[in-house]
Design a protein that fits this description.
The structure holds two protein chains of two kinds. By secondary structure, chain A is an all-beta fold. Chain A is built from no helices and eleven strands. Chain A is about 0% helix and about 55% strand. Chain A is globular and about 45 Å long. Chain B contains no helices and eleven strands. The chains are: A mainly beta, B mainly beta.
């Protein structure tokens, strides 16, 4: 039973345009959500997070939106750059889970020059 | 600061062999984690240690054991390796409940092949 779902295995966008990566979750106990970025042959690195008490968090070119009623979050990258090409993982946790993360399967983003 | 380090980077084993993957962090974090990443499967939690002296099973613990040697080090042991354990293994650490927003910091990974 997959609790965090990233239904798009891949996404391709042009440099300068917006990239939108989506994530759905099924466990209503999740109260904290994170996005990680992973380059080949490296470990994942933290990108941005959002608490369930908020609906938006912004950090430079990256914005995460949370729609609790729909159990859906999205990561917007504006403008997209070739260096953003990587696999993006959505992850979720709740305090009662000992802060364990549950990851989605990832979305490979390719930004074309 | 090196962050989270893992050794070895690569390893090839034969079925039935044993080995230990080492992980160390220098961020004074209380919590440490072991994940595996398989193609199309995302990262799945094998074991975690919420604090020194405690360990608990994650989503896919079968075939593995762990040791939290001290606050810095958390090792993962395969007693009798199987081809199904071919994967990339990541160690991570965190300091839950702090202003770091529960971010986990990951090591560079160990790529393990079991023949």
């Amino acid at each position: 039973d997959q609790q965090v779902k990233q239904n798009s295995p891949s996404l391709s966008v042009q440099e300068g345009r917006i990239s939108i990566l989506n994530c759905d979750y099924t466990n209503s106990m999740f109260d904290y959500f994170l996005w990680y970025k992973k380059y080949p042959a490296e470990g994942p690195t933290f990108l941005i997070s959002i608490s369930s008490i908020k609906d938006k968090n912004e950090d430079g070119r990256f914005t995460v939106f949370l729609n609790k009623s729909a159990k859906h979050l999205s990561l917007h990258i504006v403008p997209s750059q070739p260096g953003d090409s990587a696999v993006y993982f959505c992850a979720a946790m709740y305090g009662g889970s000992n802060y364990k993360l549950t990851f989605g399967k990832g979305t490979l983003l390719t930004v074309n020059p | 600061n090196a962050g989270v380090t893992q050794t070895p980077k690569f390893q090839v084993l034969k079925t039935g062999q044993s080995m230990t993957l080492q992980c160390a962090q220098d961020m004074n974090h209380n919590s440490m984690y072991w994940y595996r990443q398989d193609p199309g499967m995302g990262l799945r939690l094998i074991y975690y240690s919420a604090s020194e002296g405690t360990t608990d099973k994650g989503e896919v613990p079968n075939g593995y054991n762990v040791s939290r040697l001290n606050k810095r080090e958390f090792s993962l042991r395969l007693e009798s390796a199987a081809p199904s354990q071919t994967s990339v293994y990541f160690c991570a650490s965190s300091e839950p409940g702090t202003d770091s927003y529960n971010e986990q910091f990951f090591g560079p990974g160990t790529r393990l092949t079991v023949l």
